[in-house]
Amino acid sequence: MKILGSLLIVVAGTAMGFSVAARYAERPRQIRQLISCLSALKSHINYVAIPLPEALSQCTSGIVGPVADFFRTMSLLLLTNGWLTPQAAMDQALIESKQLVLNQPEREILAVFGANLGGMDREEQHKSLELVQEQLARIQYEAEKLCEQNVKMYRYLGICSGLAIVIILV
Amino acid sequence: MGIDVLFKIAGVGILISVFHTALKQAGKEDMAHLCTLAGFALVLLWVVQLLGRLFTTVQDVFKLF
Q1: DSSP state for residue A99 in the 8-state scheme
Q2: Predicted-complex ipTM score
Q3: What stretches pass through the bilayer (chain B) (predicted)?
Q4: Taking a contact as any Cβ pair under 8 Å apart, which residues of chain B between 13 and 42 contact chain A?
Q5: CB–CB of B11 and A152 under 8 A?
Q6: Rounded to a whole number, what is the distance in Å from the CA of B49 to chain A's nearest CA?
Q7: Which residues contact A157 (CB under 8 A, 6 or more apart)?
Q8: What is the domain extent for residue B30?
């Protein structure tokens, strides 16, 4: 019985460590997907000139996961609720997609992007999208550095904290 | 009882050293030192109890009051 309990504690600690590590590993990937979606959206706005909901749903082609879901939710919101501004739709989509592991800086940049989206002419949107991409690229670089450092540490810490709790309790 | 506590202390020591290296590699040296200190305090808690028992035993054996 004691062995079973300690095994469970160790497994729980390990799982906690790995889930936190997975979160850190997931963040740069999602930012990368966000950048590629935004560059697709940029060309859809500039050269294809289709309405925003369609552009949003088409710019996710080739990408799966939470980021694609986020853009699709936003497009759906814009299609079904015509009175929503792009900014409000983006806020709503950010709330609805729980799988996104974005931190405060990315969310702020996305809010700026949403505020400029659909409010100006093509040239200005092009400029603002380029700015957003640049900022996201910098954040991606930082997130990758953070990921490299932290993933291993959180795995070790998870396993070791499970073992430590077992030793203290025994 | 005695050998049990020894093994517990040894286990905590090994784990704390792993904690320390993991945190140090991640560049969080302050956290590593804090962690070491926490482990030290934990072990000290156990050891102080044993030391207290040792002193009372010594008192009993030599009839010191």
Answers
A1: T
A2: 0.71
A3: 6-23, 35-55
A4: 15, 18-19, 22-23, 25-28, 42
A5: no
A6: 15
A7: A17, B19, B22, B23
A8: 2-62
Residue of chain B minimizing CA distance to A162: B15
Is a pLDDT exceeding 80 seen at residue A102? no
- Element housing A120 (H / E): none
Q: How far apart are the first and last CA of chain A?
A: 12
Query: Of B11, B25, B42, which is closest to A153 when you measure between CB atoms?
Result: B25
Domain count, chain B: 1
Helix (H) or strand (E) holding B42: helix B29-62
Six token digits for residue B4: 């049990």
Q: What is the pLDDT of residues A35-66, one digit of tens each?
A: 888 888 888 888 877 787 788 778 877 777 88
Q: Does the pTM exceed 0.80?
A: no
